[in-house]
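Incident log, structure service

09:12 report received: a user says their structure output differs between two submissions of the same chain.
09:20 pulled the input from the user's history:
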Amino acid sequence: MALEDLLGTMTTTAFFERHFPDRHLTVHGSLDRLPAFFYQGVLADPDALSAAYRGPVYVTNRNLGRYQVHGIETRACFAELGLSVGFTEVENLAPGAKEWLHALEQELGMPRGCATMAVFVNGRNSGLSVHCDAQEQIAIHLMGPKAFRVQAHPTRFPKMQHVPGRETPPHWLAQSDGLLDDATLPEDAEHIELRPGSVLYTPRGLYHETLSGDALAMTAVVAFRNPTPAELLTRYLENVLLQSEDWRRPLAHGWSAAPGHRDAAKARMDELVAQLVARLGGLSTERLLASAEAPPLEPGRVLDTTRLKRDPSTHVALTQEGDRVRVSIATALGTGAKASLSLPSSLQPALAWLERGRRAFDFAELCSAFPAWERSALASTVALLLRTKALVELPFEAW
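09:34 re-ran on a clean worker, output below:
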């Protein structure tokens, strides 16, 4: 299991009872207890990672700020300039990493698709200045000497990426009366030495700073975009509300100098808010939670209530091939995915129904339209069409 790999001798029960989600934890152990991609391939060699990586690159060193760089040899940044270099979303370069991340998400009870993996390569005696992050993270140390200093945030579960000494937005200030105001942690802050194979779990909001030693250091960091109830609800509500013309229409004259115009706009907003309050209690919690997970759906996760809609930008052609039907799917513009599927010809009526449709429907409606077909077969077909983008899931309820 992915979490057991990280915890070593600690049980998952102890981790959830004593540390997750709000207390940090350090575990030491051999690197080879972890999946092979952590010590083979690009994660075994900073030079190999630098040569293979094509995504955004960020450089920093202590209090110098964080900058995205373009068009330079990234190896020179850590090997010659002594900077700390951040490579984002490296799971695409490490075979097996994405599957391992999905397993870890499931074991932690987080939405599928919320985990990403970055790698920090630290030049000699470089590191990151004091900051806290807005999400839970797990650092897996891969190479060289490196130390963390940590201090708890005065507020539990703060939603901010605060860097002391930089301007603080109002919604961060409103969460806490005790934000750190020094660019370095105090002398009595906890000091953690990492070695290859060490794992450090940091909850959101934990203030920390890092420093490498007299050799290159490399650390993989798994970050989780695990939504708060506030984020989950507000994002979901926007998608639900935008289905309504009343909520899409701009609030005309809401900031007019004429009192009569302002009053009319306020009255309209009052009506909409009252409408929303009446509707909030009936929102589907099941759909609300499902909206946080990354598509596409697997057949086993297609529910009767799953909402679907045909994407008119994709062109679907059905061609009979004996007892099979060839489904060819492509977009007219751009470099969108092209796909070709071979399915049983008995599915053709359902495929034609899906191809012609332009309105939203739920899976139960499709099953009712073709009662002779087993639900599992229709679910598999829907899952295939979701992967090709011919169908799109609407992960929210109708207004």
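09:41 both user submissions now match this output. Likely a transient worker issue. Closing.
09:42 reviewer note: Residues 313 and 331 are 6 Å apart (CA to CA). The chain has 13 helices and 17 strands.
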